Amino acid sequence: MMPSLLNKSTAQVTRLGRKGCDTVESLGRAGAFLLQSSVGVPSREGFSLWLRQMHFVGVLSLAIVLVSGLFIGMVLALQGYTILVDFGAEQALGQMVALSLLRELAPVVAALLFAGRAGSALTAEIGLMKATEQLTSMEMIGVDPLKRVVAPRLWAGFVALPILTVGFSVVGIWGGYLVGVEWLGVFEGSYWSNMQASVAFASDVGNGMIKSLVFAVVVTWIAVFQGYDLVPTSEGISRATTRTVVYSSLAVLGLDFVLTAVMFGGL
Amino acid sequence: MKRSKTMEFGVGLFMLAGIVGLVFLGLRVSGLSLSTPTQTFQLEANFANIGGLKPRARVTMAGVTVGRVESIDLDTDWYDARVVMSLDSGLEGELSQDTTAAILTAGLLGEQYIGLSVGGAPEMLADGDTIRDTQSALVLEELIQQFVSSMANN
Amino acid sequence: MHAACPKEGYAPMTDTPFIEIEDLHFSRGEHDIFRGIDMRIPRGQVTAIMGPSGTGKTTLLKLIGGQLTPDRGRVLIDGQDVHRLSRKALFALRKRMGMLFQSGALFSDLNVFENVAFPLRVHTDLPEAMIRDLVLLKLQSVGLRGARALSPAELSGGMARRVALARAIALDPELVLFDEPFVGQDPISMGVLVQLIKRLSEALRLTSLVVSHDIKETLSIADYLYLIADGQVVAHGTPQTLDANQDPRVSQFIHGEPDGPVPFHYPADEFYRDMLGPARPQGAK
């Protein structure tokens, strides 16, 4: 009995160790992958490939991001109003809506939506190209798929998400205006002036943009790498797509805490 | 080819919308103004207690915003707070030397800001001068303490 | 293209083989796939590599194309050691090769015309009119000039493979690797593909390497055959000599007998013991 128990626990430790090594190894592979594919000389051809991907990950994600932003802004105003009115501070509604959107909600929610809408599609698309040997055949034709397939998608993601985040904020603030001013009757002047008095461009809008840029890099990176690194079967593709959404959501929320602590923790 | 033209147009529009959105966030939401940053001059003031005053707080005069708090640090000569304000350059040479600066609170729970009121001295404050006459922030706990001790004395 | 302007170091047609594989070892995890393979693929001929499925024939093509690196041994293409080349030199070498993939591997975001034009656009600076002529020429040679505007999703499996063939020969390569070109084809498109490979190889003086387990079709186009099993070359020779080979492993494969040295049964306990043994959950030890 003893030796078998010992064997079992040794095997478990071995498995744990192997799993750890695998994780570190795949992290290393992912890092090298990001470096190899994102760094390069831009070309005319690369620009048109990038444009095409901007259309897919950016323009086509616009609708879902804007609609979500509108509703989140409206809900924020409604919830905020009921709390603020207790303190007689409903004039601060604009400030509350704008700050929560700019600092927190717009970068995070837009990144989560982006991971679900564009990230999973990127993973599936690249995975399908891998499964149907398109990446291999590209390599055999003498074209580096990292440059041709991966790089335009990476750069499109890097640029698209910050733009989507701006859209999210703008529409959200407008949604807050609709509910707060048009419906609940907060004085319009105080909605905007309180907002303007409390929002600082560099530290609120700027930091929100930095957050969004970081999320863009992480989400796109995860999505594209999961697609490139998956097991090329239909099961592998579906698993990798799930992994993309799960990993990017966790990464966004975790990083958001770290970034918030660094940016606003000192205040 | 036609499809790619519409796509290019769409992407262009998308990027343009991003820039317009950013401009909106700058002008309408954070209240930046397009005109070149107004000329300012700086004044200093030492307060025994600044309460909850923060950098970028408003500086007002008769309720009109005339500047912002630039920085707050501890003055180790007197162990009080030195507050640097930047004010509209229109006021340079217009404020008398006995101008007072007080830390006020907007409402009971509102933000704190600095209120200036001019005196009658003939000499005027220049860039970099220090306001001598200051009034610290009201700290609620101290008020209560004073009230309680005066009650006890009676 | 390359035939018209020979590069430096381009050896004239000689009797030296185009591809030499020496003592090739390759393993994946703990699973040995190749244990010392030697091959010589002659210039300008159709050579076939055959073997039961799962023997790593596709892996061999990837080793030749430089996408995998062997554990031991080397692959020489036209005198160059594929796995010692710099990335740039390897890509330059790949320009002289075409590869036809099992699934066709057409780029799904490009239409048929653009798929065939892809290698030309990437590797040459030809004017658009000339690219158009070349692409139509290649498509004509596989009989799909009329399908140029279709997207890969609209093609049948056989047509996709023909388009892929047109793409593989777009740069007039010296070597074309065919990965299971006949798998999953109906008899008609199978016949078309056999015809095409034969005709194109002759017309373009291609060195062709066909990996397949379709015996009849392969025997009909190959000039020379290698039979691999268990990670080693079991036999090689012309179709006639292999047909006459008495080695049971060879004759089982060539004549398609269900049982023989390659057993019908997956290794297991003796049947009666398994049936009479105590009931226990499946998979438990």
From TrEMBL, chain B:
Positions of the Mce/MlaD domain: 42-118
Superkingdom to which the source organism belongs: Bacteria
PANTHER family from the UniProt entry: INTERMEMBRANE PHOSPHOLIPID TRANSPORT SYSTEM BINDING PROTEIN MLAD, INTERMEMBRANE PHOSPHOLIPID TRANSPORT SYSTEM BINDING PROTEIN MLAD-RELATED
Protein name: Outer membrane lipid asymmetry maintenance protein MlaD
Higher taxonomy: Bacteria, Pseudomonadati, Pseudomonadota, Gammaproteobacteria, Oceanospirillales
Gene name of the record: mlaD
